Each structure stands twice: as C-alpha cells, then as structure tokens.
Amino acid sequence: xxxxxxxxxxxxxxxxxxxxxxxxxxxxxxxxxxxxxxxxxxxxxxxxxxxxxxxxxxxxxxxxxxxxxxxxxxxxxxxxxxxxxxxxxxxxxxxxxxxxxxxxxxxxxxxxxxxxxxxxxxxxxxxxxxxxxxxxxxxxxxxxxxxxxxxxxxxxxxxxxxxxxxxxxxxxxxxxxxxxxxxxxxxxxxxxxxxxxxxxxxxxxxxxxxxxxxxxxxxxxxxxxxxxxxxxxx
Length: 234
Description:
Distance between the termini: 38 Å
Strand content: 15-25%
Number of strands: 9
Largest sheet: 5 strands, mixed
Helix content: 25-40%
Shape: globular
Structural class: alpha/beta
Number of helices: 8
Low-confidence stretches: 1-18, 20-25
C-alpha cells in the first residue's frame, strides 16, 4: 500500500516535481485504501480527501474512524437516528449496510486524492501533500447522471478546483454551505474524440464531519439535510 519515495522517482515523475524534495526525503507515498462507491444511478457524489492511518479504522470503508461523524450524520438525515448504521453497541459502523444504502439512494462516494504523503503521519488535511488527484475522466463516465459534487472539507475542495482548466483564486472558493458552478472539461483528449460531454456540474461545500471541526452535530445534520433536500434526495 505504501512505498518509499526515491530521489530518482522524484526527479523523473512529473506528478511530484512540484513537491519540496527536502521535505519528502524518507517519507512515503500512500495509495488511497478504499475503492470509490459508484452507483450507476447516482445523481450526487460525495468527495473527501484521505482517511486516517489504519490504526484509527473501525471498518474498511470510507470515513472509517468511529469518531468521525459522517455516518451519524447520514443516519440523522435519512432515518432520524444517528446510530442507524452502527453495529449494536460496538464502536463501528456496518460498511455493507452503508454501501447498500448508497446504491439504493443513488449517492456516490469518491475520494479526491488517489495518492498522498502524510507529512506528520496523521490524517490532518493541513499536513497532507497531494501527489495524485482523482481522475475525473475515469470516474464521471461511470456515474453519468451525477450533477452535484459535494466536498467535506477545504482540501477536497481545493483539489477539485485545481482540476479545472481555469482554477479560481482561493478567495473565490466556496465557503462552508455554499456552492459554485464546476465547469469541468475532459483532460484526456481521447474522451473528447469519442464525443462524450460532461454534465453541467455544481460543487457544494459542506461542513467537515471531523470532530475537530467546531460545529455541533445537530447543526452538521441540519446542513447536510438542507443539501440533500436541495438535490432531491429527501
């Protein structure tokens, strides 16, 4: 899952040429451990950044930390029960139940980061160096009905906006609970030659589900509920 960065690799690999070579010496490039969840009927796609280290996982699925509130929020929004996806009294959620729900409701989940370096060894976005971002040329054709992307923090928002041909300046990034048009264009010329078109996409930024984010759980639930109502999921 991980490999050390060698100087030769840094010198020849354009994807990391912009990294500070002194900082990444002896650090590792990690691959995102979870495959995207891509229901073919999905109309919205949730896009986070990178999970915590495996010692923090309560399950092998997106948002695996039991103390991250993502699946409590989903339970509260759709079932009025923050423990809906919890396995009894155990400190874990049920990945199969979550996956079935996402397919049933047409909600995709895809990370914005495929490869990254943890500069301080933890899951903090602040100290995460993105090596390889998501390949939307590969992902979007698998969810052709998706019209709305939503991010769960600043790093994911930044990564997506930097995939645009004309990325906005940071002062124009959407703030929490705001949305903007997302005029993505194919980066692979082969897709253009095939005559495929990209849906008119909107990018929504929602509150982080990390408990480090200073917002009460009930207010996070309210924000996500308002979003899902807006996109026709409630």
